[in-house]
């Protein structure tokens, strides 16, 4: 068990070090996490999924930063969420994404992609505060009666990333 963990850690370090768009510290400039497990998911997903890679590259070129972290439990049975809180400055908004802990590896990557799709939607719309974010997602999901908004494009991203990950299994 310990040897398997060590091999995965070495593999994640190599993927991170050799992945284009990753800084020398092994992190992207605009897609960040303080948690090693999340950084591993992002690096693995960037390597194996063209859809996630395109999303991250898109976000890396936009004025905004997203921090991804884990949460033991999310409301309304969600596996991930883009929080409707915007900090930072109007020129460089900072967004937060949370991903439920203990998700299967590839499914967790797909959920990261799903939430990064929402981040891309928010940054492209010029969202700079919580009210603007809520208004944006209300306009994109007119069927929701709660503050749990969803877009068809983000759901399609989840499916696409899962298919890409299944086609390129981890080594």
Architecture overview:
The chain is α/β, with parallel strands linked by helices. It has one domain: Collagenase (Catalytic Domain) (3-Layer(aba) Sandwich), CATH 3.40.390. It is built from 6 helices and 5 strands. Strands 1, 2, 3, 4 and 5 form a 5-stranded mixed sheet that branches. Helix 2 (36-48) packs across helix 4. It starts with a helix and ends with a helix. The model is unreliable at 1-6 and 8-25 (pLDDT under 50).
List keywords for this structure.
Collagenase (Catalytic Domain), 171 residues, five-stranded mixed beta sheet, alpha/beta
Number of helices: 6
Average the pLDDT over all residues and give the rounded result: 82
State which percent range the strand residues make up. 5-15%
Task: Output the CATH class name.
Answer: Alpha Beta
Shape: globular
Order of helices and strands: HEHHEEEEHHH
What composes the largest sheet?
5 strands, mixed
> What level of helicity do the residues show?
40-55%
The stretches of 5 or more residues where confidence is low (pLDDT under 50) are 1-6, 8-25
Q: Which value, in Å, is the CA radius of gyration? A: 16 Å
Q: Could you please say which CATH topology applies here?
A: Collagenase (Catalytic Domain)
Query: What is the CATH architecture assignment?
Result: 3-Layer(aba) Sandwich
Total beta-strand segments: 5
Number of domains: 1
Structural class: alpha/beta
